[in-house]
Amino acid sequence: MALQKENILIVDDDIDILELLQRHLKSMDYHTYKAVSVKEALYILKDTYIDLLITDIQMPEVDGLQLVKFANEHYPEMPKLVVTGYPSVDGALEVMKSGVIDYLSKPFTKDELKKSIEKAFKQGPQSQKKKPILPHVVNNNQTEMVGASEAFSAVTNIIERVKDNKATVIIKGESGTGKELVARSIHYSGKFSRAPFIAVNCGAIPENLQEAELFGYMKGAFTGANENRNGFFQAAQGGTLFLDEIGTASLAVQTKLLRALQEKEITKVGSQKAEKVDIRIIAATNADLLEDIKNKNFREDLYYRLTVVEITVPPLRERKSDIPLLVEKFLRKYGVEYKDRLLRMSLEALQVLERYHWPGNIRELENIVQRAVIMSDGLIDVKDLPDFLKFQIEFPQNGFLTLKAMEKEYVQRVLEHTKGNKTKAAKILQIDRKTLRDKLN
């Protein structure tokens, strides 16, 4: 059974030190989070379960000692280490009095860091109590789902009910809605979280290889089978096997999946011996499987075996109140990755995002925020968004506009954007100035 890695948050305004610490910690098999300021560290602590805090002391604006004091108040059972490039006797005494386990002076060796971490986990609490999860966050060490809408709450309520059992689950929803995140949340928030989670995109496996990849094969079973090999079912033993795009599985594989669900056993390609498996199956699809059943492309008996519990993930257009929270999450992610700091978005830009209908759902929103972070030099504003978002027309709730009225509103909106500059407006509209003048008349 795979052991869950400890989460360590490292805080330092020196990027080189952060990178060095991260390399050392990864080589020790820890999972790391980085923050270049106390402010950024607070965002991570708010939404992430952290096993150990390692922080510098001398930092701009708010220093590391204030972070330690904050952590003592809000996460008293989380062990803390301090590193500093400005050691002093008085400073060390003050830090140790604040409740940290150890105090390291820069430069330090990897072995010194390792000993301090081991000391922290040994002297700190053996099992840290997990902090209460905020209403708008479903968070754990492997995934983070964010939302506050009723549609989002309906999904998280089902996750809470199924996380501690191995009932088969099917997740339905449009592409980009976060179906794999839901599957990961079911697995990692429950009592089987230390067991493997294996994600398989059935649509990415050629049809003639699906059976061998899922169930494994014996040496000589087919050309190229030069050794005995386990499949994804064996890899997920004791844990969860997530089958994405289940509708693309071949009929032959569907028959074997049905047997695996009914009998809790599988047979490798080229073998006559059945093997018992103890796993939870979570399947996902953006296709209409009932229509596939009518067209004889999907087995009806397998469909009902898979739908013990059904979760429908709503499209983003049906949970627009979650957009600000999702934007905050992606700004934190890409701001740190690309700009080494937290970025913010203007209210006007956020309103533009809330008006859009999001055919690509959360994946499209993430891509647009990622692009905006790259294009922006500071506060992300409307100018940093793609042009197709800037000039949207918001239809009234009680009906549709006529084509003429829609054109008029659009031209007016473009003119407002250009502050009455007809040359710029004509360029955006891709018409000449005479045509624009005729339309205005």
Automatic annotation (TrEMBL):
**Origin, by domain of life?**
Bacteria
What Gene Ontology molecular-function terms does this entry list?
ATP binding; sequence-specific DNA binding
Q: Name one Pfam family in it.
A: Sigma54_activat
InterPro entries annotated for this entry? AAA+_ATPase, AAA_lid_NorR, CheY-like_superfamily, Homeodomain-like_sf, HTH_Fis, P-loop_NTPase, Sig_transdc_resp-reg_receiver, Sigma_54_int
- Where are the 4-aspartylphosphate residues found in this chain? 56
Question: What's a single GO BP term from this record?
Answer: phosphorelay signal transduction system
Extent of the signal sequence: none
Domain Response regulatory per the UniProt entry, residue ranges: 7-121
Positions of the Sigma-54 factor interaction domain: 145-374
Name the UniProt key words of this record, in alphabetical order.
ATP-binding, DNA-binding, Nucleotide-binding, Phosphoprotein, Transcription, Transcription regulation
The protein's name: DNA-binding transcriptional response regulator, NtrC family, contains REC, AAA-type ATPase, and a Fis-type DNA-binding domains
